[in-house]
Amino acid sequence: MKPSLSNNLANLLTSISINSPRAIYLAVALLAAFMLIQLPKVDIDTDPENMLRADNPARLFHNQVKQQFNLYDAIVLGVVHSDGIYNPTSLAITKQLSDYVMNLDGVVHSEVIAPSLVDNIENRGAGELSFSWLMPSAPKNQQQSAQVQRAIERLPLLHNTMASGDGKAIAVYIPLVDKDNSYQIAEQLRQFTKTLAQDHQYYITGLPVAENQFGFEMFVQMAISAPLAGAMIFLMLWLFLRQSVVVMGAMLIAMSTVIITMGSLIGAGFSVHILSSMIAIFLMPIAVVDAIHVLSEFKEKLQHNKAIQQNTDHRDIIREVIADLFQPMLFTTLTSAVGFLSLMLTPIPPVKVFGGFVALGIFLAFILTMTLLPAYLSRLSPKTIAQLAGGEDASLSLLYRLLKTLSALSQNHYNKVIAALTLFTLFGIIGIGQIVINDNPVRWFKADHQISIADKALNQHFAGTYNAYLVLEHTSDSKTNHKTVSAIYDAATALALPLEATQDIDAATLLTQLDDLSFEVQLSPQQSEFVNQAIAKLSNIAQQKNSFYQPQQLAYIDQLAQHLRQTDQVGKVNALSDVVRTVNRELISGRNDDYTIPHTHDGVAQVLLQYQSSHRPNDLMHFVTPQRDATLLWLQLKDGDNQTMQAVISATDAYIAKHPLPSGISYKWAGKAYINVVWQQAMVAGMAESLAGAFVFVLLMMIALFKSIRYGLLAMLPLTITIIGIYGLIGWIGKDYDMPIAVLSSLTLGLSVDFAIHFIERYRQLRRLGHDITSALSQMFNEPARAISRNALVIAFGFTPLLFAPLVPYVTVGLFLASIMLISAVVTLTLIPAVVTFSHPKKELS
Amino acid sequence: MNSQLFRASLFVAALLALPTQASDLKNVNEIVAKTNLGAFYAGKDISAQARMKITDNQGRVQIRQFNVLRKDIEDGGDQQFLISFSRPSDVKGMTFRVEKHVNTNDDRWLYLPALDLVKRISSSDKRTSFVGSNFYYEDISGRNITLDKFELVNTTPTSYILKATPIDPMSVEFSHYTVTIDKQMMLPMSIIYTDKRGNEYRKIEALKVVNIDGFNTVTSSKVTDLANNASTLMQFRGIKYDNNIPGSVFSERSLRNPPKKWFK
After folding, report:
1. 3-state secondary structure of B67
2. Computed from CA positions of residues A150, A154, A160, A163, in that sequence, does the dihedral angle turn out positive or negative?
3. Is the pLDDT of residue A147 over 80?
4. Is the pLDDT of residue B11 over 80?
5. CA distance B174 to B166
6. Residue to test with chain A: of B84, B89, B229, most A Cβ within 10 A
7. Mean pLDDT along residues A617-624
8. B131 vs A627: CB contact, 8 Å cut-off?
9. If 0-12 CB within 10 Å is exposed, 13-18 middle and 19+ buried, where does residue B155 land?
10. ipTM
């Protein structure tokens, strides 16, 4: 064979590594040490909002709405008492809780919702309207407790939100200054509830806690699962190689790869997102796979030499091994890297970071395998080398027999193999059709996790702890009265009123300026009269236009809310119309027939001004802006599934299509439940694109590598079947297609093509050496097939510790890795021989 | 008395008072009583126009404008108020009538013109928002001085600094407040509230004091919610003292028919 560029490079690398192993050690050690000290700078980011770019329109709008309506991310702390919550003891507990919350840092105290912190507005009869704290202190007897219950049940905003409809639970809503503190605050609350009566149940839920707690536990898992997986891989490798020292070589590669990659990610200033936390777990198998190929072939060659009693220096054997493997491994590295680099095409920042750094790690693993591993092996003692060259072990011979059977099967019954795999593929395609795209941060915890338990319990009692906001906004041009406004402006200027010079002034600004003048400047009688008239004119313009206080608009909101309440997924809707109706009822008579909306804009304004005259004047601003040009419907959803939110969006769209909004009003969504839908849609579309892109790119690489379209297509077959099979399986078992599952497609692509490359490359080498098809295929089932199956087994079993993690994404990754490895190994080892046999006429075979 | 002459004589009095530190009041109850009279009982009656500029934590502004009439039954004792809104224009004509009592709960009535509804208002306490502003009802009508225990914590060349602690801590949201009283004018220039966690969370300041008809009058004051930086600025204009407003003006009839003569 003529020496190619890659051969030369391989030789050069091995020479350096073998001749100066200490230099290699030093270089890698220095690099790893430098990266290791970057790790403490870690910045954990578990906010799913960051799945969207900072300038994503939906995210911008979500944050604008939060600000506009003074909404905060909140922890929901529920107290449940199965015999009923309206008794002096239980209510005293809720009072203790809210007192405690009011003393916690990081809480927006003025916005906490609890029985002792909200107002009751009540018609006392005889023309009297009363404002009072709903429960200023814990009731002393059952009668007072029943009064609290009656009051809550009369207030639609509180009923089923702060107190459950079944009378068994009360929820304290704890808005947070910064959602990143939610885990820490939740922990303080958990500690406190331990000091309270234990015949009550205490539950903490809310998306911010789920997300923040996930971040905390993810950190713990990084420290537990990854090392456990490392230990398991070590054990598996040891079973095959029986030499701890040699196995350490593979571990060295894996660990250096992980440390350097994570260190460079953190050092470069990227935060560790949920996905990036799994980089270690993704890189370990890839790095180990590289090392196993080298170790496996090294051992085989040692055994072979021993068998033919040839005494070659083991350093020469290393050279041979690297020369053999350099090219196929370069290609597997490139294809795996392409799979992950394609993630950088998605519009999701954390996915880009993840893809980029995994790809970096893959290259690194390759370089280390080509340098550090030879250096390490070259320094093995002769004794170890001799032991490594020792006889076959039992597990290997079992594997050997299994592979022989597989070999015979795939060649003699190639029709059946092809038919079976075709069926399997069909089965997969049907399954893919049934995939449910869904995600929910609470489901990232296993069902027995305290977060999941609390979520279930509280959503059973209350209308729902997941929030979505439907925002209606006036979009019509506020400059419709431009003529009037500019006439007033001109007249004001003529009277020498000191206005700030803006020609293109709008009604509201001009009003403010005139208003300020009337109170802050000594005006002449003439000026004063003009200003008063102008103010009256302008305030009419500013007020009546674009105001959600218009009864027709409130009626629309009311009907929309009614409709949404009848949607299965919606637990409760709180709207401005509910506030108006409630206050109106209490103002007039307290009777249900006055639970209505006043007939005039002024009537609404006067009713709502009373609502603002409470202990919590800002509560109104959660439903309408001070300018009244935007209003919000707060939807409480029973679960945080994206599918649930999606259904609510569709129901709303359908209603609005049938009952058009009053002209000049538009609607938009905000809220965490909605944001999760937005990024997931971006994710699914992005993943599909990047997978398709990577697929085409890998196919072109295969064609280039094998210089044959036929072999290129053949190499793509196993991975195609594996991907279809695995995603089909997901469809069949009904597991939601969520973030981890989406990202794993690139891992599948990268890992499952590896086996095909090694198999075909070696097969073609054998053919070039003069073997016929049958003989080449038989040879293939020796060392190459053994390396492939060893790899598959090591990775599949190596990641079983992940199955015991309390976080579902880790379990998913563990299961996925095992499936990818086993399915792609089996498919490669059966399909390629079967297709090769099938595609050659019988006579060619001999 | 001619008001200019009065102002001049007051000025002289002030000059004379300056160097004589010996005239500092020592008795905290005397300081409180004098300040209470100066801040809430100036004149026999008053008519004025007021504007509130409510600015929320995002800088969004709302306006409330109203005419106010006040008549004292007795200095330091009961008072009558009539407050009628002119803006926002959709609450124009909304009127409050208040009979403030020192020894019992106030009587409050409300008229809503759009619903043609008169309501008696009762409230568990007076620390509810005044028409959605950062002022409490109590800030406007004057907190009863018997509700707090006052201590004179400091006397500076210009001010008395008082610390007030509520006698019934459960009835209020603050743990104490600190009042800075201008010695010359005997008016509170700032009140800072400390919450039960020990944080200052609320501040009321007198921004502008004008002597009107011989009375030092705060014409501009501001309350700031220190936790979120929302604030309300209250400004007065057209202040007139001692108009001899007849008691009949403060009757239920005036709710529906605001007395035009007094409300310009």
Report:
1. strand
2. negative
3. yes
4. no
5. 8
6. B89
7. 94
8. no
9. middle
10. 0.91
